[in-house]
Amino acid sequence: MYTSDGQLQIAVGDEPIYLLPAMCNRHGLITGATGTGKTVTLKTIAQDLSDAGVPVFLADVKGDVSGMAVAGERTDKLAARLAEIGVSDLDFHASPVRFWDVYGEKGVPVRTTVTEMGPVLLGRLLGLTEVQEGVLNIAFHVADDEGYLLLDLKDLRAMVGWCGEHADELKLTYGNVSKATVGAIQRALLTLEDAGGEAFLGEPALDIADWLGCDADGHGYVNILDATRLAQSPLLYSTFLLWLLSELYERLPEVGDLDRPRMVFFFDEAHMLFDDAPRVLVQKVEQVVKLIRSKGVGVWFITQNPADIPEPVLAQLGNRVQHALRAYTPAEQRAVRAAAESFRANPAFDTEKTIGELATGEALVSFLDAEGTPAVVQRARVIAPGCSMGAAPADDQAYLTQNSPFATKYGTPVDRESAYELLNAATIAAAKAQAEADAAAAQAKADAAAEKERAKAEEQAAKEQAKAEAAAEKERARAEAAAAREAQREAERQAREAQKQAEREAREAQRAAEKAAAEQKKEAERRQRRLESIGTSVARTAATTITRGILGSIKKSLF
C-alpha cells in the first residue's frame, strides 16, 4: 500500500512494516512453500512500486499475476482480514499493465537478436560443451570480422555452416573447426528452433527503454511477461531472464543511489536461473546483481527456498519476505535453519520454529532501513494488493495486448538482409561461378572429346579404307587364284575327259576286237562243231549201222 509520505506499507506485524523505495534497488527475495502467499506478496510489492512511479517487470509463470490489470473487489473475507490487521483505506485499482510474450500469443512479442544474446548465453541455451562453445564463439567473431549481421536463427545456422565449410581457411586465424562439432551445434540449433527459439530470436528486437516510464497518472508501467508456455522450456526461460539482466546492465547508465529505482524486476521460479547452470553463467548473474544497483535497477527473486539461490547472489538480497516452509526431512530442516539464520534475529520469537508455523498470507519480513541495514525480522501479515487476486480474464488480456502502443512496433517480424541472405547470395554467386567454370570445363572437355573422336573417326576411316583396299586386293587375288584354279580344273577336267574318251575308245576298240575275235572264235567253234557234228553223225550212223548189223546177226542166231 503506497502511502502519502512515499513509503510502501507491505505488511503489518506488531507495527506497520514499510519497504523504502530508495532501498528497492538493493534487491529482494520472496520465498515460501507452494500456497503460502508468495504471489500475493509479489503483487502487493509490485503494485505499490507502480503506484510510487516505479516501472516493474514480472515473469508470470502460472498466469495469475495477470490479475494486476484488473481492479480488486472488497469481499467479506478480505474486509475481515483487512480489519484484523488494521487496514481500512485499501485502494482497489488496476495497474497500467502491458502484456508481453516471447511467442506473441498472450502479449506483444518479445525478441532479441542473436548478436545481442551473445555466444555465452546462447551456448548455455543450446547446452553446448566447452569445445562446441569455442566453435560458436568463432562463428560470432567471423561474422563480426566479415560484416555479417547475426539477427535470427537462420543467420546463425548459415554462419555456423559456413565456418564448417571453410574450416581449413579459418584454422590459422581462429582455430580448429571440426565438422563433427559444427554438426552438433546445428542439431542443438534445430532443437532450439523446435522449442520456439525462432520466435524469440529475430527483429524487431526489444528496446528495454520501452519498459520504462509512467502513465498519465504517474504510475509506473507494469510489464508482465506471460511465461506460462515459456516456463515449459526451462532452459529458454532462464536464458531469457539472464539476457534481460545483462541487457539492463549494459544499456542503462550509472545513476548511483536514487530516491526510488528506475525499474524493479521480479523473477518468479528463480531456481530455473541456476539449475544446472555453468559456473561462468552463475558468475555473470552474480556480477550483474552486484553492479546493477548503481544503474538504479532492483532485482527480486521469487522461489520456494532460499537454498535455490547461490550464496553469492543470496548475499546481495537485502529485502526479504519469508513465507512458511515445511520441514519433513533432514535436508528440509537444514534449509529452514539456514533460512532462519539469514535474518537478523528477533528476541521475541524463535525464527526457525516460526517459519514452520506461519499461516497463509503470513510471513517473516525484514527490509532495509534508510541506512541500508537489515531490520530485525518481524512476524507479519502481508497486506492484500489493490488489484485482483486471480488472473485477468482472457478477453481483457487480449484487448490490452491488441491496443498496446507497442503492438505495431513489435507485432510484425522483420527479416532484413543479414548473414543468411548474404551467405546465400555468396553461395549462389559461387555456385554460379562454379557452374560456369564447370560448364566451360565441360565444353572444353566435350570439344577435346569431339576432336579426339573426329581424329579417331578419321583414323578409323583410314583403317577401314586400307582394310577395304586390302580386302579388295585380297579378293582380287583370291578371284584370280580361283580363276586360275578353275582354269586348271577345267584343263584337268578336259584332260580327264580326253583321257576318259581315249580310254573309252580304246575299250571300245578292244571290245570290238575282242568281239571280232570272239565272233571269229565262235565261227571257228561253230565250224568245228559242224565238222564234229558231221563226224559224229557219220560215226553215229556207222556205229548204228554196225550195231544194227551185229544185233541183227545175233538175233538171227538166237532165233
Structure, explained:
This protein is of the alpha/beta class and 559 residues long. Helices cover 55% and strands 10% of the residues. It is rod-shaped. It starts with 7 loop residues before the first strand and ends with a helix. The mean pLDDT is 88.
* Tally of DSSP helical segments: 17
Biggest beta-sheet profile: 12 strands, mixed
Series of H and E elements: EEEHEHEEHHHHHHEHEHHEHEHHEEHHH
Shape from CA axes? rod-shaped
Percent of residues in helical segments?
Answer: 40-55%
Average per-residue pLDDT, rounded, comes to 88
Helix/strand/pairing category: alpha/beta
User: What is the alpha-carbon Rg in Å?
Assistant: 62 Å
Q: What is the number of beta strands? A: 12
Placed side by side, the strands forming the largest sheet appear as 2-1-12-11-10-3-9-8-4-7-5-6
Distance between the termini: 214 Å
- % residues in beta strands: 5-15%
Contiguous low-pLDDT stretches (5 residues minimum) are: none
Provide keyphrases for this structure.
twelve-stranded mixed beta sheet; alpha/beta; 559 residues; 17 helices
